[in-house]
Each structure stands twice: as structure tokens, then as C-alpha cells.
């Protein structure tokens, strides 16, 4: 195979469909009072609602998450209206 075909195969392999129950590693790029926004590779972004940041009651996601952190998350809902999968840090740590 030539280089172009190899690169194309790599892109196809990276074009994975995320589904509920998948564990993913992502990097937090924004945190607000509602939750954290996570970049998952090139194709996906995710959102971790405040209630999914920890089993403890938090006032703000900043108690456990910071911009630039890479963490493992569990996909708990398919893509929402904004094209983001809903993620859970708490469920990922529990499993």
C-alpha cells in the first residue's frame, strides 16, 4: 500500500462511533457552572454535567476538573442536539 492508502486507513480506523458504555479519554477545554466540555479526538466533543463530575455534591465542576486535564470518562448518553456525547467522570471512576 502506498502512503496515501495507509493514511486513509488510519483515518477510517479513527472514525469510530461512540456508544453508551464506552470509556474514552478526553481533554477538558472549558469549564462553567453547568459542567465541563471535553475534546475527544478529532471528531467528538463531550459534555460532563455537574451531576456526573463526582458522586459528592459539588457547587462547581472546578472542584474536580480543570481546563487542560486529561481524564477517562464513560459515555452515558448518545450525541445531544449540539453533537456532543454526554460523559460521566463519576461512573468512569466507579467502574
**Unreliable residue runs:** none
Cα Rg? 15 Å
**Strand and helix order:** HEEEEEH
Strand content: 35-45%
Helix content: 10-25%
Global mean pLDDT:
83
Our count of helices gives: 2
Spatial order of the strands in the main sheet?
A: 1-2-3-5-4
3D structure, described in words:
19% of the residues lie in helices and 37% in strands. It is an alpha+beta fold and 95 residues long. A five-stranded mixed beta barrel has the order 1-2-3-5-4. A hairpin with a 3-residue loop joins strand 2 (35-40) and strand 3 (44-49).
Features:
95 residues; alpha+beta; elongated
Q: What does the secondary structure layout of this molecule look like, with pairings?
A:
Layout: H1 3-14, E1 23-32, E2 35-40, E3 44-49, E4 70-77, E5 84-88, H2 89-94
Brief overview, please?
The protein is α+β, with helices and mostly antiparallel strands and 95 residues long. The chain has helices at 3-14, 89-94, and strands at 23-32, 35-40, 44-49, 70-77, 84-88. Strand 2 and strand 3 form a beta hairpin.
Amino acid at each position: 500500500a502506498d502512503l496515501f492508502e495507509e493514511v486513509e486507513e488510519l483515518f477510517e480506523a479513527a472514525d469510530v462511533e461512540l456508544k453508551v458504555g464506552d470509556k474514552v479519554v478526553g481533554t477538558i477545554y472549558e469549564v462553567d457552572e453547568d459542567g465541563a466540555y471535553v475534546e475527544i479526538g478529532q471528531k467528538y466533543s463531550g459534555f460532563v454535567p455537574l451531576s456526573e463530575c463526582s458522586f459528592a455534591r459539588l457547587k462547581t465542576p472546578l472542584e474536580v476538573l480543570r481546563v487542560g486535564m486529561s481524564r477517562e470518562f464513560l459515555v452515558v448518553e448518545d450525541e445531544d442536539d449540539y453533537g456532543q456525547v454526554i460523559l460521566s467522570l463519576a461512573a468512569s471512576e466507579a467502574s
